Every structure is written in structure tokens, then in C-alpha cells.
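REQUEST FORM: STRUCTURE PREDICTION
Request ID: SP-0412
Submitted by: Lab K.M.
Chain count: 1
Length (residues): 433
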Amino acid sequence: MYRLLYLCFFLLLHKPLLAQQDLIYVKLNEWSKDDRFDKSELVLPLFITENDTIETNDFENLTESKQVSIIKPTGHRNYAYGYLYFRGIPNAHNPGYVNVLVCNYNSKEPLLYVDANNNYNFTDDNPPRILPMVFNANDSVLIELGRADNPNAKLAFKLSRFNYGNKYTYKKLLAEHYQFYYPNRKFTGIDYCLREQRFVTRSGVVKYGNDSFKIAVFDANNNGLFNDADTDKVITANMADSIFDSKDDLRCFTITSKKEDLFIEKDGEQFELLQIDPAGSYVVLKSLTEQLQMGRLPEGKKIPKFKYIDWEGNIHKIKKLRKYDIFIYFTGPNSKNFSKDTATLRLLAAKYPDKLRVIGFIDVNKSYELKIFGMYANLNWTAAFKKKEINRMLKIRGVPASLWLGKKRRLRKYNLSPDDFLKAFEMENNNQR
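STATUS: Completed
RESULT:
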């Protein structure tokens, strides 16, 4: 009797824990590159500090600047100031920016002081960092800035020197730009300025079953918070990828307050996004069963009409295929089982030419990559360009993915692999004989 009571008490006590065993906690412990990071040529201009004052940011003469007194570290030969764009720390005179001071800016070891509390006192913050010397484009420093109201909510900045090489004309234009727009300041010269690259993406690895993929949160408004609705984004990537593409709608979506849109899709599996840490330290996912799939078109209903363009540039209309079953497959060269799946697409198209049409929307970075694929693959199925409007229309948010349409464009099934579709279609046709 006592054992039975103890067992009942144990189950009641641990019921919440048992119910959460299907949750996936993903630690986001790395700063990662987004699609703009390596392309960024953002200049952090520096201006000479005079008489213990600096000028406020006038945004290239769009506002009126004013002089602000500062407290600077002593014992240095010269000083230059600038601003880092970060919206997480209040700034009485430069809203949205953090003040920085470079001491001995033209020496072999310039020192960077960051006014992390924006009080215009450069002596009460973290110790200075040594910057790479001028013309050393190989080295860099990483600066992390935390929000005033949540120090764990951060952005990171990679600061380095520009490698202008033979870009003398470009270098001259930049120098003229800052001298023209800031005539009342003494510009240090473009060689002494810094290249600013922002890490606004935090990433980790999702492990489920025998598979895994990368996931990241993207701080679109640079305020150190990673869960702002209708602004920030969630991005997925393959394990081999090093870049998170914030513009790819097959791997990226904007965080929304609508629960039905808070899901990601990877390799045909769906995961509900239950929680995003504001500081971007973790996310919590839940793997969805087939009965709980989110954000999809209802089975049995007609899908919307749309046009698509094949690799040769021909325009097709989906409504003209109403007399056939249609297998639509979303894939790409970096997708799981790409070679095997495209071989099955060929087999399907060859085996059922009178009953089935096969369309593959191929995820490539450049349009010419699909044309090369079409030229050399000797296709008997339609390889088409991916299109954001079609992805949204068919509720596709990840590759590989698929739809099985019956006649008259009626949706029969989501996310069958080519092999699974082949088995199902063969069985159905054998039963009809």
C-alpha cells in the first residue's frame, strides 16, 4: 500500500518533467556571420580630440553638432574619437551610439577605450584594448557591448584595418567624403580609421535522433535583444555552412507574435519554437508529430494557382497540369540526399509519363548554377527557379520539402521523400489495375 502511494506521489511530482522530455534545449554559444558580414566595408571614422572635448554625431550635417566635455586617460601622445552603432545603451548626446576613444592613434600600438556606460568618462570602463597598427589588415579585436538593462544581451564588433591594396581611387573618395561632411573636425586620415563588422547572429546546434543542423537568432535592429517581434529573425543552416543567410526565406523567418507561424522546418521535420531567450543565449524547440504540423495548407483543398520558370527560362502555369498528379520537390545541391533524390525524380518521370508530372524547385545561390545543372543533368523532369512568392503560397519553410498534388491541384500530402512518394504512387497505381 505504501509503495503504491509513493509511486502515485512520484508520478504526480514529476509529471511536468515527464511532459517536457520531448523538448529540445539549444544553447546558442557562438557569434556567427550573417550574409552581410564579410561584405561589410563600414568605416568607423576617427577625429582628433582637442581640448578635452568631442563633437556629437551630426549624421553628415543632418543635425547640428555640439561639443561635449570628456574625461580621458592621461599620459598619451594624442587622442581620436568615434562612435560604434549600438542601441542598447542610452546616450544623452549620441542616441543609438557608444563613444570610443583611440589613444596614440598613429603609433604601433594604438589603445582603444570604449565608453561602455556612455557617461563620457573613458577612465571608469573596462581596460583598453590594443588595436592592430596601421596597414595591418590581418589582425583584429573583438569588442562585446551589453545592454544597460540586461548586460547579458550583447552585440559583438570586429574591429580591424582596411586593406586598400591598389584601391587608391576608392581610398581618396573616402577621405574626401569625411573631410567634406565634417569640415569643422580634424579628420585623422582614412588610414587611421577602423573597419567595423558587426556580429548580430548567435548560433548553436540542434540535435534530434541521428540528425543535426544549425540554428541562429538574428538581431535585425542591433539593440542586443534577439526576440523583438516583427523585427528579429530565426535562421537555420546545414552543419557544413558557416554563413547564416538572413534573406533566404527557405531558411529564415521573422519572429512573430502568431503562434501558428513560430515554427522551423528542416529536412522534412517541423519544430515549434517555444522560447527565445531575449539575450540570444538559447532557444527551446519541440519536435512536431505529423498530426501537429503547423502553418500548412489543408489536405484535400486546391492549392493556389502560380507560374514558375524552368532552367531554360520558359514560363509554366501550374493550372495546366490539372489532369495529372504532381510531385513538387524543393531541394538544392547542399540539401540532404540531393543526388539520390534527383535520381528518384528521374525514375518517377520516366515510369509514369502519362500520369505524373515532376517539378523540382532548386535552391541555388546564383541563377547560372541552375542553368549549368539543367544543361548537364539531361533532365526528364522540370527543374525550376525557387521563388519567394511560391514558397509563401505553398507554406514551404525549409529544404528538402515536397507536396503531392492530386488532379485539379488538390493537396494530398506534405513532405514525402522522393522514395516514399515512389512507393506510395506505385501502390496506388497497382491497386487501380
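NOTES: The first strand starts at residue 23 and ends at 27.
Reviewed by: T.R.
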